[in-house]
Amino acid sequence: MKIQEIRELIRLIDQSSIDEFVYEQGETKVHMKKAAAAVAVTPAVVSAPAAQPAPAVTVSAPAAPAPAAMPVQAAAEAPATEADQPAVSAAKQAKEGAFHQITSPMVGTFYAAPAPDKPPYVKPGDKVKKDTVVCIIEAMKLFNEIEAEVEGEIVEVLVQNGQLVEYGQPLFLVKPE
Amino acid sequence: MAHGAQSDTRKRLLELFAEANGEFLSGQKISERLGCSRAAVWKHIEELRKEGFELEAVRRLGYRIVSTPDKVTANEIQLGLKTETFGQVIYSFEDVDSTQRVAAKLAHEGAPEGTLVVAEEQKAGRGRLDRKWFSPKGTGIWMSLILRPPIPPQQAPQLTLLAAVAISQAIQEVTGLVPDIKWPNDILLGGKKCVGILTELQADPDRVHSVIIGIGINVNQTSEQFPEDIRAIATSLAIEKGKPIKRARLIQDILFRLERLYRQYLTHGFRPIKLLWEGYAVSIGKPVTARTLGGVMRGIARGITDDGLLILEDEQNTIHYIHSADIQL
């Protein structure tokens, strides 16, 4: 069976009301089953995919070598620990100085500027308004322009351009006005 | 009022020609069906010709449509569109700086879900990281669709994979060509890029305001029309198919499939989309290079997670989960 034929089958079954499909001819056997039922049983996974520490890794933060078969959580430990460090210092500073934190609404890559050859959206000392764009978070080519949501002055940028950031990770400290 | 009635007659005339399916329709029959005089029929035919329709007139047989103009106006897209919301509101432009910018403004002003912005030409089409997207007049599909999904923001990236599946299905349906998807959502024909998708999210930490899916498709460019530096890596549907493709027809099919997959996604989650995505995936099981701002990683693409992340296994058999990177095959 050709890959194109399998693709076509997947497409047809996708459009049909068939839940399960088995095809056998000679030594070829194709078994397809729609995942809808399985998904419905575990809605938590669907509604909160980023609730667990996101196991993303970039070259700048390589994971400890782990066998391929290890569960997701194990492989995710190393980057999660690294990502926690700025979070801890930011939280400390936020307590001490009553600074406002701008946090990341999703897991992804932090971009400080609209393009590599452009200046950053904001730098320490800049005044921001609620709708000032302070950075972009990107995941899977979805770009999220993050707004300050608060009026004040940028005190510190807590992450590096191109760094992978976690859900809820502090990105900036702002002195509210 | 008069204008509205007239365009309604025009629409019915086009429907008659669509039913005739390329066969001749007598002037008598048209005037009976539309309830207007033969002179009025002639006037409508002349107006269609001015719009770019090619009509053949033969004595005793009547009229037949030889070809319709390849335009991407709201009329062309909505005639025969089988969706409930996607594309039911269309803003079409001869030229625009970028459909994405127009759509973002409309979304901010409260445009409903399914609103489509489409242009014959973009003066400042852009891709990832503000890279320019080559979008010359009348050759491709440059459009942006506004969604308002009731999902948490961190789930929104899955919509980019969903869009890639819907567009691949539509290309297959309309052209018969089977495209490949390169993670996360580049669409390739014969190893060359023909579709780029850029999605932008406006959200509060807990709520999505809008997701704008920007779609650029190289449809009818000849290879000479591509700048020299991208000729080796870019292609168009017409180049691969060997003949021009009607753009409005492809847009209709994309909107139809996007709407269906989107509904399925909101009801059943990402799993069914994942299976469809993997059916088109070109990189799975092959060595790939992932480039990020942080550096370069090489490994074997093992598939995607239930969230849509790329699973990369490096030479030390370590599994990495990639959120964002440029993938080279």
TrEMBL record, chain A:
Annotated signal peptide: none
Keyword terms, alphabetized: Biotin, Fatty acid biosynthesis, Fatty acid metabolism, Lipid biosynthesis, Lipid metabolism
GO cellular-component term (any): acetyl-CoA carboxylase complex
Limits of the Lipoyl-binding domain: 99-175
Molecular function GO labels: acetyl-CoA carboxylase activity
GO terms (BP aspect): fatty acid biosynthetic process
Pathway the protein acts in: Lipid metabolism; fatty acid biosynthesis
PANTHER family hit by this protein: OXALOACETATE DECARBOXYLASE ALPHA CHAIN
Function description: This protein is a component of the acetyl coenzyme A carboxylase complex; first, biotin carboxylase catalyzes the carboxylation of the carrier protein and then the transcarboxylase transfers the carboxyl group to form malonyl-CoA.
NCBIfam families, alphabetized: BCCP
Name of the featured protein: Biotin carboxyl carrier protein of acetyl-CoA carboxylase
Organism expressing this protein natively: Geobacillus subterraneus
Species lineage: Bacteria, Bacillati, Bacillota, Bacilli, Bacillales
TrEMBL record, chain B:
GO CC annotation: cytoplasm
Residues noted as binding biotin in the record, renumbered to the chain: Q122, R126, G127, R128, K193
Catalytic activity: biotin + L-lysyl-[protein] + ATP = N(6)-biotinyl-L-lysyl-[protein] + AMP + diphosphate + H(+)
GO BP terms: protein lipoylation; regulation of DNA-templated transcription
Gene3D superfamilies named among the record's database cross-references: 2.30.30.100, Bira Bifunctional Protein, Domain 2 (3.30.930.10), Winged helix-like DNA-binding domain superfamily/Winged helix DNA-binding domain (1.10.10.10)
Domain of life where this protein originates: Bacteria
Residue ranges of every copy of the BPL/LPL catalytic domain listed in the record: 75-266
The entry's keywords: ATP-binding, Biotin, DNA-binding, Ligase, Nucleotide-binding, Repressor, Transcription, Transcription regulation
Pfam families: BPL_C (PF02237), BPL_LplA_LipB (PF03099), HTH_11 (PF08279)
GO molecular function, one term: biotin--[biotin carboxyl-carrier protein] ligase activity
Membrane-spanning intervals of the chain: none
E.C. no: 6.3.4.15
DNA-binding segment(s): 27-46
UniProt similarity note: Belongs to the biotin--protein ligase family.
Biological role: Acts both as a biotin--[acetyl-CoA-carboxylase] ligase and a repressor.
Protein name: Bifunctional ligase/repressor BirA
Organism: Geobacillus subterraneus
Taxonomic lineage from the root: Bacteria, Bacillati, Bacillota, Bacilli, Bacillales
